[in-house]
Amino acid sequence: MIEVRGLAKYFGRFSALRDLNLDVPRGEFIAIFGRNGAGKTTFLRILAGLSRPSAGSIKIGGKSMPMSEDGRGMIGYLSHGTSLYGDLTALENLRFFSRVQGLPSTDADLRARLKQVGLAGREEEPVRNYSRGMQQRLAIARAFLRDPSILLLDEPFAGLDQPGTKFLVNRLQEDRSRGKTCLMVVHDVQLGYMLADRLVVIDRGIIALDFAKSSGSLGQFQESYGVLVQEN
Amino acid sequence: MQVGMLAKIWAVFRKDLLIEVRTKDSLNAMLFFGIVVLVIFHFALAGAGDSIRQVVPGVLWAAFAFSGTLGLNRIFAVEKENNCLEGLLLIPVDRGVIYLGKMLAVTLFMLFAECIIFIFCLVFFNLTVWEKLPWLALIFFVGTLGFAAAGTLLSAISINTRMRETLLPLILFPVVLPVLVNAVEATNVALNGTADGGLELPLTIMSVFTIIFVTISYVLFEYVLED
């Protein structure tokens, strides 16, 4: 589903990614770990088409990047910045993102989606008045608007309270059972281990550890990850 | 152009309009700046007497251009707040759609501000222009469209730079000079009736400029917004 070969990204003299290779089969859920500044967000931004790589190639669903509109439509991206319009209400935000994509969602559909993420009764409130967690809930509703087949999630649990976390975990498990491909940057090792089929550590711009969940326990992964972090 | 594409352009346009109606950030700044320019010229040209009508087109377009630059600066600044630009770029649509929606929005904001500035201009310079209004409206529309066509692209280019507020006027005015010169010329012809049929050439030049810039911008917009 996703094929990454020799991926590199330079910001001036700083290399955020260097010779990164990864294959993600359709329906696989990958949790990505790594220290701050390891290159995780840069990697997801390139996959989402928000940033051009300095070198290397990426194929998603057999199509090379940069992708057409249809290719971009396969991807749902949730970053730790919510990218919402503060002067619009939650409903207006969703309505805009739905209409600009040409989706046939009615206001009733959009209200139902807001209800799903726990924003019922707050639909007509400007997003500026929302807490960080409520904004994250709205960003989640937006990311799932198209029902994308590939999910790129960059710290999706940031700012979420316990019910919000529970909702997102359930939603991701449901998507996983429906065969969706997911790459999720996360810092909570237990949560990542619970959700993912495979755990990947990015360090200094390369894949430093690639751990299949079937090959070991959470403790074994934590040990390998811990050693890696200490070494560097 | 397909109906679906028009609906997407309308969605971008409507969103910008809704935010502006709610905040009035651009319009307040555009009106204030435009009127201040008129006030300065009003005092500077107090002794011009009957020749004032010859100077008004230049004064008017200076006010339009300066206030329009503020509107252009704001049209992408809205997207920088809360990292909305990223959300916009993730939308699986032809990025030219975003350009067209934003260009139409900034054109509308400018035309609205120009109407108010023009009314102040009539009062300050004691002008009567009832019979010339349809021509002036056409010139304002074509000139503003040309200004916004180039300005929206350049505003998108400058938004990712550190000196965006300073950079935009520096790159904008040399590019839109053909529009401004012809708009002043056309306004002068319409206002003072100096030549029969003298509107055709400046209006044609402005229209051709607009078509060229809209086409170039539509194609290039895909590359302008990426980092």
Would you give an account of this structure?
The complex is a heterodimer of chains A (232) and B (227). Chain A has eight helices and ten strands. Chain A has 232 residues and is an alpha/beta fold. Chain A has a domain of 60 residues. In chain A, the strands form two sheets. In chain A, strands 6-7-8-3-9-10 form a six-stranded mixed sheet, sandwiched between helices. In chain A, a hairpin with a 2-residue loop joins strand 9 and strand 10. In chain A, helix 3 packs across helix 4. The longest helix of chain A has 16 residues. Chain B has one domain. The mean pLDDT of chain B is 90. Chain B is built from eight helices and no strands. The longest helix of chain B has 30 residues. In chain B, 83% of the residues lie in helices and 0% in strands. Chain B starts with a helix and ends with a helix. Chain B is mainly α and 227 residues long. In chain B, helix 3 runs antiparallel to helix 7, helix 6 runs antiparallel to helix 7 and helix 7 packs antiparallel against helix 8. At the A-B interface, helix 2 and helix 3 of A face helix 1 and helix 4 of B.
